[in-house]
Amino acid sequence: KDHVTTQQARRELATQFMEQATKNSENNRLVQSSILIQHAENFDATAPGLADAQKTIAAALERQELERIEKERLATIAALKQDTLAKARSEKVDDALKFLSLLKIYLLPDDPFLTTEGPEALSQAYASIAMRTKRRADSIQKDYIGQRDTYLAALTSIKTNLKKLEDELGFKTKPTTDI
After folding, report:
1. What share of the chain is helix, strand, coil (3-state, %, to 5)?
2. 107 near 114, Cβ under 8 Å?
3. Is 177 exposed, middle or buried (0-12, 13-18, 19+ CB in 10 A)?
4. Which of 49, 44, 47 is nearest to 2 (CA)?
5. How far apart are alpha carbons 104 and 158 in whole angstroms?
6. pTM of the full predicted structure?
7. pLDDT per residue as tens digits for the range 65-103
8. Cα separation of 146 and 29, whole Å?
């Protein structure tokens, strides 16, 4: 067993560590506070207020960790929302749907992003894709109609010119099909 003077010195050191831990925790330096509390315990595990300080620091560390987790969650949600909207704007609908389904993990089912904003962005993407596809199909159809009309005009011209040639030369060419 330690001498009384040694016990008093150890208690004094433990008290100093606890005081410094309190100052650090007030400055939100909780990890350092926890380390100082451990040092205090090493010097005097029965120091007055040590158990309460340990509980206080542990609770503060837990709150801090929960706050960090919540900040990460909110940052993840913000990033997923941004990615969903960006993919929808760039008409990468499959990717946007993947991000939207990931958001279902983090958001409540009635969240406005899941019920309104995300689906609206996707519907805009689908509408844009559909309009572009329609314009392309219309263009192809116009090209086809133009080519058909040109072909028919050429056939009519050939038929007319053959008729003139027959009349001028006085003989019949092979019969042509009707146009």
Report:
1. 85, 0, 15
2. yes
3. exposed
4. 44
5. 67
6. 0.59
7. 999 999 999 999 999 999 999 999 999 999 999 999 999
8. 78
| Paired tokens of 50 | 């040590």
> CA 50 → CA 53, 109, 155, 156, distances in Å?
5, 46, 105, 107
Q: Which of 81, 89, 95, 151 is nearest to 125 (CA)?
A: 89
Which among 18, 19, 30 has a CA at the least distance from the CA of 62? 30
**Secondary structure of 31-52 in the HEC alphabet?**
HHHHHHHHHHHHHCCCCCCHHH
pLDDT tens per residue across span 10-35: 888 988 888 888 888 877 788 888 88
Determine the length of the chain: 179
